[in-house]
Amino acid sequence: MAPLSLTGGYQRIGKGIYLSSSGNVTPNRGSRPPTLILTFGWSVFCRAIISEYPADVADYRESTCVSNLEPVIHVLENLGYLPSSMLKTKATDKPEIDPPRILIHAFSNGGCSQLTCLSRLLKARFSNWDILTPGICAFVLDSCPGLGTMQHVKNSITPLVRNPVLRTLFRGLIVWLFYYSAIMKRLFNSENLFEILKQDLNRPNLLPWTRKSTPRLYLCSKADTMVAFHEVEDHMKNAKAAGFKDVRFEVFVNTPHVNHAKFEPERYWGAVKAVWDAACQQEQTND
């Protein structure tokens, strides 16, 4: 599969935000590609993730708007996927928005945090999501979510800090946060951020376009040293138990954290395309 090029099609429209617009290009016959791909992840690899989107997975290159973002609501409004003035929208008003075709792709706990942040921001501005037509939507979770042991968090954060002094301070801060969280849970039965994150991801209306019927795909690896694959598997099982109708699970053996597409592209993008095709088929069945 040939990866998409960042040249000639993508524009940086803000911090961590990239847009690819197709203009008036018509998709190939029989294909129903996403009109928008929302990709959530650490900004340090935003460009790398975009560049790995294969050109032959539902013709993303020719017919898709791609926003790789740190939650910015006005981008979605400007693209026409949300009402332009959500604060003024009455609960009974039906906004005139065409049913979208959206692929949501989150990478690691950092990307999940971005995703849930966007969810909270949207919910604060627009409480009644049921008046929006969900359209076609699929949900992909790559190497996430996980509760994160102390060692896993150290492995994921400290390599990003090059200064040895700051790295030592970060490690000490991580240890302190874990002990503080354990004490608070013991004294007040309070949940830590990872537990809240996992619960949020299993809300049917996480975003305006998601429902329990939204197909979702989990991708993880047994070789992941940052998020243990069995934690991702546990979340997948909880999603099934919560009533999500189409939940898929793809386990790699030797691929590093969020690098499954790099080492096994055929299998990775095949799974992504399959869950998207399932979303399209589901929409046709409901028609």
Keywords:
287 residues; 15% strand; disordered N terminus; globular; alpha/beta; two-stranded antiparallel sheet; six-stranded parallel β-sheet
Task: Give the SSE layout.
Blueprint: E1 11-14, E2 17-19, E3 36-40, H1 46-52, H2 60-63, E4 65-68, H3 73-78, E5 101-107, H4 108-125, E6 136-142, H5 150-157, H6 164-188, H7 193-201, E7 216-221, H8 229-241, E8 247-252, H9 260-263, H10 265-286
Helix pairs in contact: 4-7, 5-6
Radius of gyration, CA atoms, in whole angstroms? 19 Å
End-to-end span in angstroms?
A: 32 Å
Which class of secondary structure composition applies to the elements?
alpha/beta
Uncertain spans: 1-9, 21-26
User: What CATH architecture of the largest domain do you see?
Assistant: 3-Layer(aba) Sandwich
Round the mean pLDDT to the nearest integer and report it: 75
Question: What portion of residues is helical?
Answer: 40-55%
Q: In DSSP terms, counting alpha (H) and pi (I) runs of 4 or more, how many helices? A: 10
Q: What top-tier CATH class of the largest domain fits best? A: Alpha Beta
- Report the major sheet: 6 strands, parallel
Strand content: 5-15%
In the residues, how many domains can be counted? 2
Shape estimate = globular
What CATH calls the topology of the largest domain is Rossmann fold
Number of strands: 8
- Oligomer state of the chains in this structure: single chain
Strands of the largest sheet, in order across it?
4-3-5-6-7-8
Order of helices and strands: EEEHHEHEHEHHHEHEHH
